[in-house]
Each structure stands twice: as structure tokens, then as C-alpha cells.
Inverse folding.
């Protein structure tokens, strides 16, 4: 049975895993920038970071009408 507690617990773990992935991607992007890799590689990491941050925001916002 689906319960709010189950959903909150599931979101908690999803958010924690997502935060770890965000930090990993941020580090990869910054390391790429520092090592002067081509701009396309830095851009790809930046776009992935944007996608992850949008997902994190979605998970952290109140669950209204869901």
C-alpha cells in the first residue's frame, strides 16, 4: 500500500543519491574546465548538472496535487 511516509522516505533516499550525483557532476565539470578540455565537454557536464539540479528541485518542492 502506498503511504505518505513511504513516499517521503523514498524521496529522502532519492534526494540523497541525487545530491551525491550533483556533487560528482559539478566536480567533473570544474575539473574539465581546469584541465582546459574542449568547451563541448565542459558544456555537456554543465547541461547534465542543470538536469540534475532541476530534478533535485522537483523532488524537494512540496508535493502539491500529486
Amino acid at each position: 500500500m502506498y503511504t505518505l511516509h513511504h513516499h517521503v522516505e523514498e524521496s529522502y533516499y532519492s534526494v540523497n543519491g541525487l545530491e551525491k550525483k550533483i556533487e560528482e557532476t559539478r566536480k567533473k565539470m570544474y575539473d574539465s574546465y581546469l584541465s582546459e578540455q574542449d568547451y563541448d565537454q565542459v558544456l555537456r557536464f554543465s547541461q547534465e548538472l542543470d538536469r540534475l539540479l532541476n530534478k533535485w528541485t522537483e523532488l524537494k518542492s512540496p508535493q502539491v496535487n500529486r
User: Anything to note?
Assistant: The chain has one domain: 4-60. Residues 4-60 form one domain. The chain has two helices and no strands. The mean pLDDT is 80.
